[in-house]
Write a structure and sequence with these properties.
Largest sheet: 5 strands, antiparallel
Distance between the termini: 14 Å
Pfam family, one: MaoC_dehydratas
Number of domains: 1
CATH topology: Thiol Ester Dehydrase, Chain A
Shape: elongated
InterPro entries: Fatty_acid_synthase (IPR003965), HotDog_dom_sf (IPR029069), MaoC-like_dom (IPR002539)
Strand content: 25-35%
CATH superfamily: Hotdog Thioesterase
Radius of gyration: 17 Å
Organism: Camelimonas fluminis
Protein name: MaoC family dehydratase
């Protein structure tokens, strides 16, 4: 990984996007096992239908993990100072999570050069599923 330098980024720059494979039942099963989140709304079709959903859907924290991967594909985890998000939509089976980030501010704090990013996870139709921000220290 090439180290991103504060002097080489500008407000308005976008970081490399992260595009995942379509969410499948297998994806949800693997995530449930890895996270320990076995909420039936995410893995049991009959339960989801009783809850008036057309099918199971992705765990919100799965999409949050994709946003985390967006950041750690750009910089080492130790450079992340803040990472927050809000859930804005449901990720359905077959959705292709696509995560993007854009630098919205450059500043100094606590003796470090930092950037603030707006981050977003959407599906292949551009429908937002998570929105948030991150603060990253850059050398």
């Amino acid at each position: 990984m090439t180290q991103v330098q504060y002097s080489s980024v500008n407000v308005g720059d976008e970081i490399p996007l992260l595009k995942e494979k379509p969410v499948s039942r297998f994806t949800l099963t693997l995530y449930a096992g890895a996270s320990g989140d076995h909420n039936p709304i995410h893995i049991d079709l009959d339960f989801a239908r009783k809850a008036r959903m057309p099918d199971v859907f992705a765990h919100g924290m799965l999409s949050a993990a994709y946003l985390g991967r967006l950041l750690t594909n750009w910089v080492p985890q130790r450079q992340i100072r803040n990472f927050s998000m809000r859930f804005t939509g449901i990720t359905q089976l077959g959705n292709v999570p696509t995560c993007t980030g854009k630098i919205v501010e450059k500043f100094e704090a606590d003796g470090e050069k930092r950037v603030r990013l707006q981050i977003r996870c959407s599906n292949q139709y551009g429908e937002e599923k998570l929105a948030g921000e991150a603060i990253v220290a850059l050398p």
